Amino acid sequence: xxxxxxxYDDEIDLFELFQTLWMGKWKIICTMFFTALIGIYxxxxxxTYFEVSTPIQNGKQSVFLKYTPVNxxxxxxxxxxxxxxxPDGYIIHSDSIxxxxxxxxxxxxxxxxxxxxxxxxxxxxxxxNEIDKQRALIEYSKSFEIRITAKNxxxxxxxxxxxxxxxxxxxxxxxxTLINIRDASKENVDNLATAIDIRNNQELETLRxxxxxxxxxxxxxxxxxxxxxxxxxxxxxELGIETNELESKGSSRGYDYLRGYEAxxxxxxxxxxxxxxxxxxxxxxxxxxxxxxxxxxxxLSSNQxxxxxxxxxxxxxxxxxxxxxxxxxxxSSQNKMMQYVTLSLFLGGIIGSMYVLISNAIRKxxxxxxxx
Length: 372
Fold this sequence. Notes:
The protein is of the alpha+beta class.
């Protein structure tokens, strides 16, 4: 019989449990009130701030269709970017512009320039020296970031004490970044145009030197030939051979005097009267070399790239990336205060209930010990 009673004593009596909690309800309520006060204190003691986020992604490729001829020019000249074959090249494309934008934004330069316009920041850093000011601006800049979530997709995110000021600062920094990207693109195209000019000039110099060498060789050969013909003409005159006698006597190299000094003198005159162009026309490789020179001289690639550079400078880069701060998600630390208070009440309830139950168990145990 005593064993059965002992088994019942070990079981939890829910009615007794609720009765104990109800009897200690004021202790529980006081504990909850006290923890709620602590939660409210820490909530108000924490500075107000806002968490703001909105998607950002690369601009539509249709925005960059006007730069297709520029990319084709760069491809023709071996300057088009290719991740595997030509990583040092350049391309104006939505993906490449977005990548450049991310890299430029993450150097904090534009962000620091935008943040300095905040009167709140100005007040905080007014007593710092220049080096510490720059360090502080960089630290504040880190409150604004782009979180990449997928290929060519990301989230603009910042934590700031004033959501409207934060949006203004972020928008200002983005505009500055886009303008710098545009200017950098213009500079890249200008540099490519200059590189083409340098390359073409080097090739032209090489080809013209080849022609000069051909001319020098031809002049040497002609001098040697003229000297030989003068000697043959002198022999013909000495022998009184005025006209051709080759048919009747035959000839070989060294016996050109048999042609007669009249023909030889005529040939000497013709050789001396030849222009440089006439000398080179029958030279192997001259025509091909001349065609290359003409092609390089008529190459309009660098001029076309410079015109494209002017088009880039006049372009509005606002739609080079896509984002909308007007629909950004905002979370205020004030909204979180209710979460803190609710959590404090919950913890207070648990603590108060545990206190009531434990104190009641201790009291019952003491009563049992006294009774025994």
